[in-house]
Amino acid sequence: MKNISMLCMALLMSFSMMAQQRSVSGSVTDSNDKSAMIGVSIMEKGTTNGTITDIDGNFSLNVTTENPILVFSSIGYKTQEINIGDQTHLTVLMNQDTEQLDELVVVGYGSMRKSDLTGSLSSLKSDQLTKLSAVDVTQAIQGRAPGVSVVNNSGEPGAGTKIRIRGTGSVNNSDPLFVVDGFPVNDISHIAPQDIESMEILKDASAVAIYGSRGANGVILVKTKSGAFDKKTQINVNVFAGTTQATKQLQMLNASEFATLKLESYANANLTPSQTMQSILDYAIQNNSVGTNWQDEIMRTGTTQNYNLNVSGGSERNKYDIGGTYSKEEGIIKNTYLDKFMFHLNNEYKLYDNVHIGINASYTTYQKSGNNGDFYSGSLTSALKADPVSAAWDSYTDQFGEIYFSYGTNPALSAYENQFRKTSEDRFIANAYLQIDDILFKGLSFRAQFGQHFAYGLSKNYSPQYYITADQQRNRSELTENRSQNIYWNTNEYFSYVNTFGKHSINATLGMEAQKSKSNNIFGKVYDVPQNADLRYLSMSPNKENLEVSGSGDHNALLSGFFRMNYSFDGRYLFTGTYRADGTSKFKKKWGYFPSFSAGWNMLEEAFMEDLKSNSPLSQLKLRAGWGHVGNQASAGNFDYLTLMTNGYTAVFGGSQVDGVIQEKLANEELSWETSEQYNIGLDYSLFNGGLSGNIDYFIRNTNDMILDTPIPIYAGKARPKTNAGSVQNKGVEFSINYDTTLGKDFYLNAAFNISAIKNKVTSLGGGEPLYGTYSKTEEGREIASFFGLQTAGIFKTEEQLKAH
């Protein structure tokens, strides 16, 4: 009887499940052109049950709930929820999400619809910048945008990165301009990746000409998160930790190999090593010694910790976003670290429906140790120079070992001293703004903002006394301090007009900008300071007469006016014109003028392309072309065009010594900014309503009037004057492709690929001599900072080969 009851219960459960499960099929098409849609996600609401449409837009799904609701979603379309009731077959029409398709992109002094853009730019969203769990946001850019290279300055934490957009344009300064929420800054290391809403990288002249004399090297626009009106408070916590290590070491000779090579060098030079050196080398060879791996001696596994807290939300008239980030890094070089705290507050208040006021404020403080990113005098360079026969530590003398066969400091000692080389900075930025929409009539808006930047830095390097040998010692301890103060303010005010008249659309901007920066530095150096950290101050030196003190000050100003007009006819033909005038304090000829023009053609909007648009997955095909003329005032010093005087010199008059000044260098009142003339042609494409998208660009970037030191006779007794004499060309191709799709209710797939090829060439150095760097040379016809080595015809293996040559 019990078995019969169990059987009946199982049958009832089976019938119940069969009653709940049923198959629903159907097709999904675009509501505009009725084309079949592939890859549409269909999910049964409240479950993980789902499927996607096939190549013909068809689907079939076994639903499991009593009152099933199906959710249809696809990139570029509005999500739909359908209560299917008793239906077993559905015909679903998907409506395009015009807000998503006409996404607004931040451009200089405003925003534009992405479909109306005629310049070349790359857009990055918040989720793309946080995927890599990078502490420095510039590291998160790496590999994300075609034509943009990011290189770490060194392996030390906080050493910063070098960003190049479409190649190196100058031997002087090739850094891009950074603009955060409309406020220009020197870098973006003070912003946590989690606090960024979007980033636009402007690459060609038609996109950057609105920034005139500061746009030659590209512009990176950053928009930080700002909350939302009528949104509940949301708290996000992000924590990550990780390790870092050198993926590969340079292959160096071991002690035995080095000793063999060293003895050969003595023989080739007809020299005889000292008895001590001979015995050291013989010992290494006889024992087949591995010796010291100096890279192991200075390196370790680094660690990274990052903690981010963000609070955002808003009421009917107020929105806010508050964030704090603490990060701690221990570098792969021993005794290097970075402690950084970042805080930001964005708040906006709606005085009236069309009047908004707000403030964006941030504070950053950090302390780091290391060699301040100086690769050439750091621990790693010492490790590559040191011979493997020498030991890192001498157990007999209980101190750092002597370096026998190479010049420089014991690398282990150099790494040990990293802990005494400390740098700290406190930075505060505040930017207030007023936004009035429809100020006189519909479509006309006005924005005014004023911001100020304060930075206070301290670099403190202590070099302790040590003795290894008479040739390897520091007989007096040294302490140097450098204190800096930088103050910068910027204000810009502009009108924007956006409107549509039938088939005509206009987006125009007219405004002005003013900025001024001022910096002060004071430097001090003393000797014989105790090693005790509590006594490591300039005032603690017992020999005050040896105190070295110097200081400097600097300032510059810029006044500008700008205009941009974007015109679109029927969404097919696009035109953008930009003009900016800059007046700078850096040159006697104060004003420069920077125009640009670009055009675009949305080919799929043409009537003769209707069949292609209807019968293919293509959803966008836009051809772009542009030209522009921009400048690079960052390559010039603040007083390069003036005759400078230097004090500290004395002369004897009437038997008495008097103080005086001398002329430091010759003036060049014709000096002006470097300029860049750029050409760009590109193609934007998308398929499946933006699910698959990308672009192809070809560009030529010619830098002219590059500022160089002009050779003068040595008997002139003056420093070389600056002149506009050089030129550089960068040209290349960029390609990118991006794929977005939804994979069910909780999954989203993004795959991206980009590649670029750039050729850099110095076309002129004004007939002057090559420029030499520490390990590189720049000369006409080659790339900037090329590496040179000896060219060989081969290796002679026998005496007969040598005689026959």
Give a written overview of the molecule.
The protein has 805 residues and is mainly β. The relative contact order is 0.10. Mean pLDDT is 87; it is low at 1-19.
Descriptive tags:
805 residues, mainly beta, Immunoglobulin-like, Ferric Hydroxamate Uptake Protein, Chain A, domain 1, 17-stranded antiparallel beta sheet, five-stranded mixed beta sheet, 41 strands, 11% helix
Distance between the termini: 107 Å
Q: How confident is the prediction overall: mean pLDDT?
A: 87
**Corresponding CATH superfamily of the domain at 103-227:** TonB-dependent receptor, plug domain
Assembly context of the chains: single chain
Largest sheet: 17 strands, antiparallel
CATH architectural category of the domain at 103-227: Beta Complex
Runs with pLDDT <50, length 5+? 1-19
Strand percentage lies at over 45%
The number of helical elements comes to 12
Draw up the topology in text.
Elements lengths: L1 H19 L1 E9 L10 E4 L5 E3 L5 E6 L5 E5 L6 E4 L5 E6 L3 H4 L2 E4 L2 E4 L7 E5 H5 L6 H5 L6 E5 L8 E5 L11 E4 L2 E3 L10 E7 L2 H4 L10 E6 L6 E14 L10 H14 L6 H12 L7 H5 L3 E13 L3 E13 L6 E16 L2 E15 L9 H7 L7 E2 L4 E2 L10 H6 L4 E16 L7 E20 L2 E2 L5 E2 L3 E24 L2 E24 L20 E22 L3 E12 L6 E12 L7 H5 L3 E15 L11 E10 L2 E10 L8 E14 L4 E18 L12 E21 L5 E17 L6 E2 L4 E2 L20 H6 L1
Parallel strand pairs: 1-7, 13-16
Antiparallel strand pairs: 1-4, 2-3, 2-5, 5-6, 8-9, 10-15, 11-12, 13-14, 15-16, 17-18, 18-19, 19-20, 20-21, 21-24, 22-23, 24-25, 25-28, 26-27, 28-29, 29-30, 30-31, 31-32, 32-33, 33-36, 34-35, 36-37, 37-38, 38-39, 40-41
Helix pairs in contact: 6-7
